[in-house]
Design brief:
Elements: H1 4-19, H2 24-35, H3 40-56, H4 61-75, H5 81-91, H6 96-102, E1 111-114, E2 120-125, E3 128-133
Antiparallel strand pairs: 1-2, 2-3
Helix pairs in contact: 1-2, 1-3, 1-4, 2-3, 4-5
GO cellular component, one term: nucleus
Subcellular location: Nucleus
Keywords: Nucleus
């Protein structure tokens, strides 16, 4: 994976969240626009991940908004890669499916392993590994 994969996700997330992609023309326009910057297949994967996030956070709008806020902070260089991944990891703690899907956007040498019974996540970075217990409630970062 390239470092830009998480950038693809961040940019697509911002556009999806703030522009709305419920209609086909809006979605196609976003794919065309982002495909001038990123590979079209990665854009489509990012939008599919965002659809999954929307489904997973359907009952928790605060977590949904925080998810996009974290990606926006990364895109604006206000959060580094590791802090962004940790924040997303904690926000996605209630959805092992979403945590596993996030792996597709992590750069080479980075990864998330959901531990048995979904009680902890191992964050793998080029510097090493760290196990983070998953919170019972979605954390607030504001």
């Amino acid at each position: 994976m390239e470092t830009s994969d998480i950038q693809t996700l961040a940019t697509a997330a911002r556009m999806a969240h703030y522009s709305g992609l419920s209609s086909s023309p809006a979605r196609e326009g976003t794919i065309v626009e982002l495909s001038t910057i990123f590979p079209a297949q990665r854009v489509q994967q990012a939008l599919a991940f965002i659809d999954l996030a929307r489904e997973e956070f359907a009952k928790n709008p605060a977590a949904y908004n925080e998810f996009f806020h974290a990606l926006e902070l990364y895109e604006e260089n206000q959060l580094d890669l590791k802090d962004t991944i940790i924040r997303l990891m904690l926000l996605c703690s209630g959805s092992p499916t979403l945590l596993r899907a996030l792996n597709a956007f992590l750069p080479t040498g980075w990864g998330l392993n959901v531990h048995i019974d979904d009680v902890a996540v191992e964050l793998i970075t080029p510097e090493g590994r760290a196990v983070h217990p998953l919170p019972r409630a979605v954390p607030q970062f504001y």
